[in-house]
Structures are given as C-alpha cells and as structure tokens.
Amino acid sequence: MGDAKYRVAIVGAGRIGGLLEGERPPSAFRKPHSHFASYNAVDETEVVAVAGRSEGRLKMFTERYGITNLYTDYREMIETERPDIVSVTTQSIHKAAVITFAAENGVRGIFAEKALCTSLDEADRIREAVNANGVAFNFGAERRHHDGFQRLREAIAQGDIGEPKYAFCYWLTDLMKHHSHTIDTLAFLLGDPQPVWAVGRLVLHGDPLDDGSRKGPREGTDMHQRSLPLPTLNVAENRFVPPEGLDFADPLLDFSRVGYEGGAEAVFIPLSRATEFEIHGTEGRAFAWDDGEDIRLRSKAGGSDTSEKRFVPSGESPTVNTIRGLVNELETGERTSGNIDVTHKVCEAEFGLAWSHVQGSQRIDLPVEGVGRSLHIPNH
Question: CA 8 → CA 108, 215, 301, distances in Å?
C-alpha cells in the first residue's frame, strides 16, 4: 500500500465503480470517469479494497487494476479495513443499507452514486445517519461537479440573465436512474432552492410513450443492451412493480414540473434526444446543449445589447472533482456541493413527482407527507 492520506473502499463492483474505464466516455473531459480510476488520480486517496456480490466482476477489478483485496460482504470489508472513505456504487435498492452502515461504523466520508434510494423514508434515514455521525458526503450527480456547469451557475448567480424564472430539461428517460442527474442539475443552476411543489406524470407499461425501445442495463462492460418493458404501479401496495424477471421498476418521466422557493420552476419535457438544459431569466438565457458539449449564456442585463459567453470545460473530470470536494470537507470542514442536505432536496423533488402521479398528477405540496414517504420505487 502507498502513502495516501485517506484509505478508500468501494462498495459495488460494476461499471461506475471501475469497469466502465474501458469504454469510451462522451468526452475526454470526463476521463477518468469511474470511481477506482478517479481515486487513482487524487494523491490523497488510495483504494484499499473493493466489495461486490459478483465474484466474476471482482475478478475483473483484479485484471484491470491489480487489486486483490476483495470482499463479497461490504460489512466485513468496512469492519476489517476501517476505511476513511467509502464509495457506494451499488444498485439503489441496496444503497440505504450500505450508507447507513458505513456512517454508523466509523467511515468519515461517503461518495454515493445516483439514484440515492428507493423511497423518501430511506432518504430520511440516510440523512439522519450521515448528519448524526458527522460524516462528509458528496453525491455523484456529475454536472454539479462539472467545470462548465459550475461557471454557468456562477454567471447566473451574479445576475447575468437577470432573475431566473424557468429551468427546462429536454430528455425522455428514467425518473430515478437518469433524472436524478437532471433534477440535481436544474436545482444546482438555480442555486439549490428548496422545492415546494410538484406536478408529475410518469410513463408506465402500456402508456402511449412506451414504444418498447427502452434499454436495459449494460451486460458486463460491453455496450449491448436489451429492450425492456416498463414497470406497473400497484396503488394498494404503494409501490412500482418491476417487469417480470427484474428487480427494478424505474418509470420514465413525462411532462412534469417542480416549483421552488422564490418562484422559479423546473420543467421536464420528454424528448428523445441528447440531454439539454435551458434557464430562462428576466434578462437573458443560459443553456447547455448536446449533453454539456455546448454551454452558453446570452444576456441583455442592464438594457445593453445582447452579449454571449461560452463556457468550455477545463480542469479535472467531474468524478475527480467530486472526490476532491469530499477530501476538502475532511480537511477543512467546508461542506461539499453535493452534501446530504442538498441531495435530500433532490430526492424530495424526485419522489414528489412520482407521488403526484399516484395522486392523479395533481399539484402537491412538498415535502411529501404521510404514506407518500414510503412510496417504493426499486431502481438500479
């Protein structure tokens, strides 16, 4: 082992844990992308152990990175290795148990991938465990840790588009797996306000937008994906039901809205194209098109002629930046950008959209109350 200051253990021997590094990411700026490779890029950290349920996946970590300290039980790994930092890259149906165990058993910092959990009850338990034990936390919604989006947020905060009114996301995709990213991104660009209401509609099995083309999780490290049916809703059991043979039930998000303190709204528009974002303000517009490849701001602030800025990302990858934020909190006490309280607000909006759908797509107040907090959406 080396001389790194912080010992790291990864729970989840899958793609984002380390195996996707053999694939070509969308841009060179996102390299390194996986957790294992990104910890290798940070001098203060060293991965000392990896836990996973699949011995085959664990063997792939040994072949790719040379690590041989492997576990099939994350609890045993945490108790034996006593890591300073734990990365949680498992399916979301397992995250609450892993995060709370780590927080309650001496881990000082946690890096959790999206989606965070399968219900608001779980989100509440995670926040309580993290805050009660003084654990540093950072959420892996990567655009928050992306240099281009960070500079765009700064420009919006300093008034370059006036007062932000509407934030748009254009993408037809899963509520939990991928809209965890987009809900976080729009909230980040708006300054992380508190969500106060939601109007949501989901795409379930048999809906008009269910055209049978939805793709499942990648097999191993190749790019093969199979078409999957969408889940159904069991109102009596207060849960979304996975398609036969699967253990996750992640619906698509149809046209939906979230309202925030201060009056700004986030609007989600189901279009099948590269992820795009726009922020409309009283004196201009900011946008990130083609999944962040083209980030710009057009301003008429102060009544001047229209000016345009472009934000070309530079520096380190979002995953590396996420780790550096976690290390900085351990060093200085300054909370990360994706701390657990910010992440809890993302969960509130996310599950609020689902609970609105259950209530007939009525506008509901946030936070969700009563039985809505136990609405179960098993996701991967």
Answer: 10, 32, 46
